[in-house]
Amino acid sequence: MAELTQTPKAAGKSLTDYLKTPWAVIAVILALVALLDPGNWVNVVSFALRALAHTGQYILFAVLLLAYLKATGAETMVARAFEGRETRMIFLAALFGGLAPFCSCEVIPFIAGLLALGAPLSAVMAFWLSSPLIDPPTLLITAGALGWPFAVGKAVAAVALGLFGGFAVRFAMRRGAFARPLRRYESAGCCGCGPKQNEKPVWTFWQVPERRARFRAEFVQNALFLLKWMAFAYVLEALLVSYVPADLIARAVGGEGVVPIVIAAFVGMPAYLNSYVAPPLLAGLMEQGMSAGAAMSFMIAGAVSSIPAMAAVWSLVKPRVFAAYLGLGISGAIAAGILFQML
């Protein structure tokens, strides 16, 4: 049974243990901002709180669903639903990812829930890579700022990147890689008290005391895990938005040829540049000489991930999965940029 928490439960924690938590790092960061730039402290805190509140609805839904499925025993049905249908699920995940209005941070609660329920990493990776890239509002905003060819190119690249990532992970899994993607695999309840593979779900779980206890344990444990890491991610995002101007980052990837496209991917991924701000900014930079391929590479890499999203993902999955996620995102962004430049 998968669990999202990273550390096993213990009888108590020392002060040193608490100082190593994301909450302590958040406190240190905010204290430094208050000390070094007191006039911007309110802006940093309010930005992080607004972003966390917006994502909180997705966290709540994902955690409630996960706790319900585990309390009822229905996660075995989810696992069986993916058996023998991996290829179809990769295609569906890549296509539906283009309709999901999630950024690279908002998609993480759903990725956590899918992996915890035993969904194949290949299908999860397809959704993971395609979802932050495009959605209907972003498509219209991109078309308005950069034209329909660019918008359609980005939409095609989103689905193609999802398929590329899904089948690449599927190929690796066939050879024994990524067998257990989450960092910890423990039940929130007692050892051996989870549902058996052939056990029928109990949909009215609240009528059974043991299942009510399991629901509470799963909800609290997973909610606290996601909350602390998403809070940390959005504090980092607030720092990036406040102290690293987006136009300064984008100006570093000007020029023609393949090299600027590659640089654009590596600069765009750690930067924070959401899909609503990026199109008009890149439109201005393209008028000043930035190539269309570099703009596409920068936009895709920046949407797939960022430093805030990387921090949350690192806490969730094992290093090999983390490296695959970044590698697929970078390589896909470069390939999309080169192809778009050629076409």
From TrEMBL:
Membrane topology type: Multi-pass membrane protein
What's any one GO cellular component for it? Answer: plasma membrane
Q: Which top-rank group of organisms is this from?
A: Bacteria
Membrane-crossing ranges are 21-41, 47-69, 90-119, 139-172, 219-236, 248-273, 294-316, 322-340
Q: Which UniProt keywords apply?
A: Cell membrane, Membrane, Transmembrane, Transmembrane helix
What is its subcellular localisation?
Cell membrane
Indicate the family of this protein.
Answer: Belongs to the UPF0718 family.
Protein name in UniProt: Permease
Q: What is the lineage of its organism?
A: Bacteria, Pseudomonadati, Pseudomonadota, Alphaproteobacteria, Rhodobacterales
